[in-house]
Every structure is written in structure tokens, then in C-alpha cells.
Amino acid sequence: MERVVTANELAAIADEAMRTGRTVVGPVRRKERYFYEAVSRGADLALDFNYCVYSPRSFFLPSSETVLSYSIGTKEVKAAPATGGTPLLIMGVHPCDCNAVALLDAVFGSGVPDDHYLARRKDSIVVAVDCHGPCDQTAFCRDMGGNEAKEGFDVMLTPLNGGKGQAAERYLAAAATERGKELLAYNKVGKAPANADKDAAEKFREARNANFKKKLPYEAEKLPEILDRSYNSLLWQVTAKRCYSCGSCNLVCPTCYCFTVKDVPDLSCASGRRVREWDGCQLQDFATVAGGHNFRPESSSRLRHRIFRKGKWIKEQQGRMGCVGCGRCDRACTAKISVVEIYTQLAEER
Asked: Cα-flanking dihedrals φ and ψ of residue 224, to 5°?
């Protein structure tokens, strides 16, 4: 299902979603940067944004959440799961973040399914907007296949006019799921695309593809092999000398999903909550286990672990790359450590 919609009609879709009880989230400009935030009106959405500092991850996997509450009686312990939340409409998600959402869907939907994550995804609608080109010089999404998305969204918006940094007035809205079809049909917006509209969308895609340039000197499919032979490289120690182990890269990464779980009792210790919180592999105590043993006490081993996770291990586990090339980790790194430089230097070692 395809419709040609205007920017005003998209704002009206957001307003209608709020009227029916959904929380609407999208890119909002704060000074010179953009953040995914809940809005009170559709007109506040900035669909012409370059990139958001954080991804939409926290709306599906909160940084802190109660997973169950419990009470301790004289004869038994009772526990009640805490799931659900406000239905979401997230508008203005770029292809790289759509690929990240698809990865999280695979991670939390396979093995032992995570009811908390899946409940939020079930109640959410994701409206993506395609990119004119790289959002920033740090982005290497073409190399990682993150600049094009086939899943992780319900509706894809293709700008039919405007340009990079310029707001589009018209979009080709293509529904990718039943929820996407229902969203467009329920709001009765737009019109069927004419041949000129389809031609404009195709010209946009051709220009977009030309704008994305490769950053790596090899295809990303070779990355697991390159990493496999680089486990004992001196590069890890040399690069880690600059690393503060602050976890900024974990915080902004759209595909980081590690967490820790702790119990928070009340003052009487007769009841309490079990809380799940984000954790990060770059933090010094991340790999500490009972008895105080730390499997990765050195920053070099933690840095290597993260790079291997993104470029090799998640690929082997889930069949999709653990990095979408958004460049957020490079932008957030206080030591200016570049993932692209690491990937490139490892390939040049042999």
C-alpha cells in the first residue's frame, strides 16, 4: 500500500494518534542537536533532522525498568510480572535505526522470548524516513548495510522534494506491515501515487545511493574473518591506552542490549521489585562475577570484546551485523577512538 502524503498530513496522523491514547515520539530539535522525545503535537516533529544523539532503543528497552514485584510471606513468596506500557507511535526513524530495531527484535524474540520487550514492540508503530545521504562524516552505514532497511518499521517515507537539511513537503508513504496499512487507511490521508510521484521517488533513491560512499577498504562480509585473525593484535592495547572505559559508546549504540538485574527491597524487606538496568561491556566491573573475579579487567580486553561483538559474534549468532554504521560511538567517544580506523588498521596488519 502506497500513498503520497504531505508534511501537514503526517502531523495530523501524529495528532490523531495522541487523541486515541498513543504516545508519539520523534526527532525534536534542542539547540543544534536532535533527540527522540515524546511530543505534544505533530507539528513539533523535525523530520528533516540529520541524526538524533540517541537511538529509539530506550523506548523499547528502557534504561531502567521493573520486571516484577514480589512479596515475602510466612509460607510463600509471591511474584507478579510487570509488563506493558503506553502504545507508541515513533515517527522519523532512519534506516540505520530500523536495522537496529530489527536486530533487537531478533535478539529478544528468539530463544527465551522477552515478554517486556515484545509487549512494547507489539503496541508500537514505527514510521521510518529515508536519508538523502550520510548524516555525518562519522557514519559508515553503507559499509555495514545500515543505509537501507527492509524491516524494523511499519511505514517508510521517501521524500519527494526538498534536500539534505531541507524539509520535504511531500512523501511517498509505503506500508511494510499490516499495522502500517492500518495506520494509513485509518487516517484516510494522502492520495494514490501518480507516475510522476513514482519517478520522483526513484530519482531520490538513485541520488541517495550515489551520496553514500564506502569508508572501509573491504566488504563488511570479510570483517568476521579479519577480526578472527586479529584477536592477539597489539592494536587493542595501543588503542585502549586512550580509552577511559566510560561507556559512552555503549550508551549511544542502537544495538547494545546488555543489562544487569537486581532486587530492590523495601525497608521492611517483606516486598520489593526486581529491576533491569542497562549495562555496558566497556565499564570496568561489567565482567566481574561472584568471588570478585573479573574476566576482562583491562580496558584493552573490553575494547576488543565490544568490537568482536559488533563485527563478528552477533553476526554469527543472529545472522545480521551487530553494527549498523550510524557513527554514534565515534561521535560520543571522549577519546576520539574511531571504529572505522580500528577496522581499517586490523585489515592492514596482514
From this structure: -55, -40
Rounded to whole angstroms, the Cα distance separating 313 from 247 reads 20
3-state secondary structure string across the chain: CEEEEEHHHHHHHHHHHHHCCCEEEEEEEECCEEEEEECCCHHHCCCCCCCECCCCHHHHCCCEEEEEEEEECCCCEEEEECCCCCCEEEEEECHHHHHHHHHHHHHHHCCCCCHHHHHHHHCEEEEEECCCCCCCCCCCHHHHCCCCCCCCCCEEEEECCCECCECCCEEEEEECCHHHHHHHHHHCCCECCCHHHHHHHHHHHHHHHHHCCCCCCCCHHHHHHHHHCCCCCCHHHHHHCCCCCCCHHHHHCCCCCCEEEEEEECCCCCEEEEEEEECCCCCCCCCECCCCCECCCCHHHHHHHHHHHHHHHHHHHHCCCCCCCCCHHHHHCCCCCCHHHHHHHHHHCC
Query: Cell 513468596 sits at which residue?
Result: 77
| pLDDT one-digit tens code per residue, 137-181 | 999 999 999 999 999 999 999 999 876 666 789 999 999 999 999
d(CA 75, CA 56): 43
* Span 122-132, pLDDT tens digits: 999 999 999 99
* Distance in angstroms (rounded) separating the CA atoms of residues 238 and 317: 29
Q: pLDDT tens digits, residue range 66-90?
A: 999 999 987 888 888 887 778 999 9
Q: HSE (CB half, 13 Å, CA atoms) of 37?
A: 13
